[in-house]
Design a protein that fits this description.
SH3 type barrels, binds zinc ion, alpha+beta
Length: about 110
């Protein structure tokens, strides 16, 4: 007759497989959190550490040189203006070609030369 209850060895293998799967998931999540933390601390990640520019050329140059924290190429998908505490910001919306993560880059344009 076939056993319906798994034997001891099967149970152990099963547990090992589950533990390995959970461990892999945790590691992936840790890496992602770490990556997000790194990108949150990059210059321009928020209006608090916006990149100070004097001309739009400087902005173009920075956008061209910017890469995703995963190493992928970032494409400019949109731009907008924002104001906060009487400072003006130009916000570039970027999307990564590799991980498809979208991010915003803040430029302080308060003293921008017109
Ligand atoms: Zn990426």
């Amino acid at each position: 007759m076939k056993r319906l209850v798994p034997s001891g060895v099967t149970t152990i293998l099963f547990v090992v497989a589950i533990v390995a799967a959970i461990g892999a998931m945790g590691y992936k999540r840790y890496r992602k959190t770490n990556q997000q933390k790194v990108s949150a601390e990059r210059p321009g990640a928020s209006s608090d550490n916006a990149i100070y520019i004097r001309s739009f050329n400087e902005m173009d140059e920075h956008v061209r040189k910017r890469w995703c924290s995963c190493g992928g190429f970032l494409e400019l998908i949109g731009e907008g203006t924002r104001e906060r505490d009487s400072r003006r910001f130009r916000v570039a919306r970027m999307e990564c070609h590799e991980c498809e993560e979208t991010s915003e880059v803040f430029f302080d344009t308060t003293d921008l030369l017109q």
